[in-house]
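Q: Second attempt. The first request was missing the SMILES, so the protein and NAP are both included now.
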Amino acid sequence: MRISIIAAVAENLVIGKDNDLAWHLPDDMKFFKETTKGHTVVMGRKNFESIPHKYRPLPGRPNVVLTTNPDYEAPKCAVYTGLTTALKEIERGGETHCFIIGGGEIYRLALEMDVADDMYITQVHAEVKGDTYFPEIDQDNWEEKVIAAHKADERHAYAFTVKHYIKK
Ligand SMILES: NC(=O)c1ccc[n+]([C@@H]2O[C@H](COP(=O)([O-])OP(=O)(O)OC[C@H]3O[C@@H](n4cnc5c(N)ncnc54)[C@H](OP(=O)(O)O)[C@@H]3O)[C@@H](O)[C@H]2O)c1
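A: Got both inputs this time. The predicted holo structure:
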């Protein structure tokens, strides 16, 4: 099973603020939806709770929530208390490509455990105020390719570049 991280990250590594995204970038959201559609998404309990009730679970893809609370209930989602078990069970269910969709704690965990084959990172070209960060990555370990570039416009306060990082 291929395991991909997908995240949108500001120049100062901010990814979130007050348990919400720190920006509204509809075309990046569209990229996220199209890329993850049909595949299992793995997220932390806080990320799950940051998604408005009407949009969760994220439609059209199995949703997996990680929490240390074995009694946690997330309707129509699979809940696991560890990333290793979650990934094993997802693969056992026949998934061929799963996405780790954050937030900060779960990205850190996935990078520390070195489980990801590749990463889709939207670099948001701004220094943004926030309270949740993407971990610093060692660029030497990843081969970087630009997938798309988007200018700031009336719908997007910031320009952004979507990059694919493949583990060397
Ligand atoms: N820009 C982006 O691409 C992006 C993407 C996703 C999220 N975000 C933002 O990120 C923020 C949320 O991130 P966060 O770092 O605060 O929280 P998070 O990573 O979404 O969730 C943290 C929770 O995950 C559970 N957890 C952590 N490590 C675990 C482990 N080893 N085993 C089992 N469960 C574990 C714990 O749940 P319990 O406390 O229940 O035990 C912990 O409180 C929000 O602001 C959100 O908008 C941004």
